[in-house]
Records
---
Amino acid sequence: MTFVDKKGSPFEVKAYGAGDYSHLEAMYDSFSPKAKFQGMPPLKGETRRKWIEKLLDSGENLLAWREKRVIGHVVVIPDTRLEDGEFLIFVHQTDRNLGVGTQLARSVLERGKDLGLRKIWLMVGAYNFTAIRLYRKCGFDFYENPGGPERPMVIRL
Ligand SMILES: CC(C)(COP(=O)(O)OP(=O)(O)OC[C@H]1O[C@@H](n2cnc3c(N)ncnc32)[C@H](O)[C@@H]1OP(=O)(O)O)[C@@H](O)C(=O)NCCC(=O)NCCS
C-alpha cells in the first residue's frame, strides 16, 4: 500500500519479504537512540542482528519504505493458543512525526485481524508520549497500572 506522509511525500508499507534483510538491518544500524525502549533495538551489533532475526522468525513483520530505504518496522508476535499478539514498532528518527508509525500500526492491526487474533498488547514507557499518542489514536487503551516505568496497553480486534 502506498501512503502520503504529513509533508506530502509518498511511502510504502509492505510485508517483509526475502531480500529485505539488509535494508532492515541498515535501518537499525543507524537507528537512534538505541537501547532506550525496553533495551531495544540492542546496542551491540551482534545482539541486534539476533534480535532482528528473532522478530522475523516469530512475528508478522511489515516494513515502511521510501524508495530503497526502510524507514519503519512493525511486528506482531502472535500467540495463536491465546489468540493474542505482542506489538512492537520502530520508525527511523529521520521519518518520525510524519504519520509513518500510524500507517504501520493500522496495517499490522488489520493483519492481526486476518490471522484471527482477538487482542494485541504492548508495553510502553510511561513517558513515551509520542508512542502513547500513536497507540491511543489506533485504539489501544491502558488496561492496568502496575506503577512501574512501563505500562501495558491492549486493543481488542
Ligand atoms: C513511537 C514511534 C514508533 C511513532 O512513530 P511516528 O511515525 O513518529 O508516529 P506518527 O507520526 O504516526 O504519530 C506520532 C503522533 O505523536 C504525536 N506526538 C509527537 N510528539 C509528541 C509528544 N511529545 N507528546 C504527545 N504527542 C506527540 C504526533 O503529533 C503524532 O500524533 P498526530 O498524528 O495525532 O499529530 C516513533 O517515534 C519511534 O520509533 N520512536 C522510537 C521507538 C519507540 O518509542 N517505539 C515504541 C516503543 S517500543
---
Amino acid sequence: MPELTCARCGRTMPRMEQPPMAGPWGVRIQDGVCLDCWKAWQEEQTIVINHYGLKPHLAADRERLYQHMAEFLRLDAPQVTP
Ligand SMILES: [Zn+2]
C-alpha cells in the first residue's frame, strides 16, 4: 500500500485509496494528508461553516472554506491548470 508523510500530523500513513473530494483539491489532499487528519477536518469544517455562516454552494464561500481547509491541513493550494 502506498504511503505518505502526512502534512498535518507528520506520521507515515497509508495513502487514501480515493481522492476524498472532487476537483484538484481531492488529489492534493489524497497526496498530502492521512485519513485521520481528513476526518478531523470533516468535523472542523462544520464548526467553520457555522462560525462564519458560510454557504458552500456559493463559489466565494467555498473558496474561503478551502482556505481554512488548507490552513488546517497545512497544505498549499493545488496547481490549477487554466
Ligand atoms: Zn495526518
---
Amino acid sequence: MTQGIVDFDFSAMEEHVDPYPTYVAMRNAGRVLRSPIGTLMVHRYEDVRRTHGDHDAFSLGAIDMGAAAARRDGHEGGLASGDFLLAETMLTTDPPDHERLRRVVNRAFTPRSIDAIESRVREIARQLLAPLADGEAFDIVADFAAPLPTIVISELLGVPSEDANKFRVWSEAVTGTNVRARLNPETSRQYSAQLRLYLSEQIERRKEAPTDDLIGRMVVANSEQIMTDAEVVAACVLLLVAGNETTMRLITNMALALGRFPGELERLVENPDLIATGVEETLRYDSPVQMLFRACKQDTVVADAEIQKGQFVLTMLGAANRDPDAFVDPDTFDVGREENMHVALGHGIHYCLGAPLARRETRIAFEELLQMVPRFKVLTRDEDLRYPPTLMLRSPLSLVVQG
Ligand code: HEM
C-alpha cells in the first residue's frame, strides 16, 4: 500500500439513484481511496478544494479524454467521451492556453452581462410555462428545465433559437446522458458529427458577415490568430454542453428537493427573496455535477497520502458538499442556509465560467414557476426516479409535477 492511500472498491459506483450512503462509507474508509484498477479518489471538502486549487500538481491538460472516460467508470459517453472535443478548450488545457481560450468569451458571462439578458431569460421562462398553466401535470424536465437553458445559450452563441431543440438532442448525445432514451454509440457519434458540421457552417457565415454574438466574437479571435478554427468549434460545443445539461439538472434537482421538503417550498413561496439562497442550497445538497477528475502532473501529497505523477484522481464534489466538517447539518436541505461555500461549480482556475448565468437562469425559473404553481407537488414516486448512468451529471431523467 502506498503511504496514506486506502483500498476501496468504488469501481462499481452504481448508486446513481442515491449515492449519499456510499459517500458516508468513503468518508469512514479514509481520505484518499484507491479502486482495484488504481484510480484514486478524494471526497472530503478540504481535499477536493486542495486538488482543484493546485493546478500545477493536478491538471486537466495532461489527460487523454478518451482514456479518461474509460478509466472513470467504464460507461459509454459521459462528459469526457472521446470524440466530444476534437480540439482543446479552456476546460482541457492548463495555463497559458487556458487563459487564452477563456479570455475570448469571459466577458459574456460576467454578472453585468447577465443583467443585460435577464428580461429575455424571464420572457423565455414565461413562454415555456404558458402552455402548462392549465393545471395539468407536466414533466418539468422535458417541458421546462431542458429547453430553457438551451434557448438561452443558443441566443448567446447567436444561432437561431428554432435550432435550439436540435442542439439539445445533439448535446445530450455528446454527453451520453440524453433525457428520454439512451442512444447507441453510433447514433451518438453521428449526432456529434452533425453538431460540429452545423457549427462550422455558422462560423463560416460569420467570416463573411461579422456578428456581435459569442460565435462572432470567437470568429474575430480566430482572425486575430488567438483561436484556431478547430478551437472555435470545440469552444461552441463546450459552451452548449456545459450550459445545457448542467442547468437543466440544477432546475430539476431543485424541483425534486422542494417537492420532498414542502416546508422549504413554503418558505420560498412566502419569501421569494430566498430563491437565490435556495438555488445555492440545491447546488450543494444535490449537485448536478457530482464528480470530476484530474491527472497528477507531479508527485505531491494530499492529506497524508503520497500521490504520484501520472495518477488519475476522481474528485467527488457531491460528497464534499455533504462534508460535516464544512457544512452545519450537511444532510439538511435549508433554502436559507447562510454559510454555503460549496464546490458544485468547481474551484480554482477552471471554476465554472457560466456560474452567473446558471444562477440567474435558475432563480428566474423558480420565480416564474412559483408564480404559476406556488405549491406544486412532485407526482413521480421515488422508486420511479431514473438517473443517468454516470455520476458526472446527476438529476432524474423525468419529473412529473402538478400545481
Ligand atoms: C448549474 C449549472 C452548472 C454547473 C453545476 C456547472 C458546473 C461546472 C463545474 C463543476 C465546472 C468545473 C469543471 C472542472 O474543474 O473540471 C465548470 C466549468 C465550466 N462551466 Fe459550468 N456549470 C454550470 C453551468 C454552466 C453554464 C450555464 C455555462 C455556460 C454557458 C458553463 C460553462 C462552463 C465552462 C466553459 C467551464 C470551464 C471553465 C474553465 O475550464 O475555465 N457552465 N462548470
---
Amino acid sequence: MQEYFDGNRNLWNQWTKIHFNSDFYDVNSFINGKNTIDPFELDEVGPVSGKSLLHLQCHFGLTTLSWARLGAQVTGVDLAGEAIKTANDLAKQIKQPASFIESNVYDLPNKLDQQFDIVYTSFGVLNWLPDLTRWAKICFDYVKPGGVFYLAEYHPFTWVFDEKNPDQLEVGYDYFDQEVLIETIVGSYADPEAVIDQKESYEWAHPMGEVLTSLINAGFQLEFVHEFDFSNYKRYPFLVRNEKGMWVMPEGKARIPLMFSVRANK
Ligand SMILES: C[S@@+](CC[C@H](N)C(=O)[O-])C[C@H]1O[C@@H](n2cnc3c(N)ncnc32)[C@H](O)[C@@H]1O
C-alpha cells in the first residue's frame, strides 16, 4: 500500500505546481478575493464564522482559505508537501491565519490531537482512499460532540464511464470494483498538456452504499444525502452551463447524478 501512497504523493507534488499556474484554479482571482466554495456548499454547511474547521485533502488550500475568509479557524491537511508549502505561502500572501499539515489522512491521528466544529472534505477526495471504514472513523474522531461532518463529491456513478470517449458515456468500469485502479497519467485534469514524470495514479472506486455505510458505522447520524444533476466543472463535452454557473445535461438528454453531498452529525 505504501508504494501507492508514495506514487500518489509524487503525482500530487507535481500536479500542485501545474495547478498553481493553471486557468482551472485561477489563483489570481482567488488572491483578489474570489471564494472557491460552491454556493450550494455554503448553503449546506451554513455559517462558519468563529467555528473551527478541519479540511481533509485540502490540495494547495484555495478552498481552506476561502473558509478562513468567511471567518472559520481553519486547519488544512494534505498528503503532498508541495501543496502544503503552497497553501502556507498563499495564507501569508492574503494575510489569513491558517494552519496546514502535511500528512496522509490515515496518519493524521499521529500528528493532530484536536476536535473541530466542522470536518469538511470535497471534490476528488474519496478516490484516493483505499479504506473508507478507517477514513470515516478518523473523520468521526475529529468532530466535536455536537459538531458536523460535510462531504461534497463527484457521484460514484460517474466513475463507471470510460472518459476516453466522453461523448458517448460508455460503461467501461465496474461500479463495484474493490481492486486498486492503476491509471496511466497524461497531463492533469487542470492542464491536459502538462508534462508529468509520475506515470501512474492509484485510485479506488467506492459505491454510494459503501460511502454512506462507512459514515453510519463510524457513529455519524446522517442529516441528509443530496444527489445533484449538475457538476461544478465541464465533466463531459456535451454539458451546458445553467443560470447558476453549474454544468448540466442539455435539454432533452436524460439526467444522471453528477455530484452528491452528505451532512452528518455527531
Ligand atoms: C482533487 S484534490 C482535492 C482538491 C480540492 N477539491 C481542490 O480542487 O482543490 C485531492 C487531494 O487529495 C490529496 N490526497 C490524496 N491522497 C491523500 C491521502 N491519502 N491523504 C491526504 N491527502 C491525500 C492530494 O494530494 C490532493 O491534494
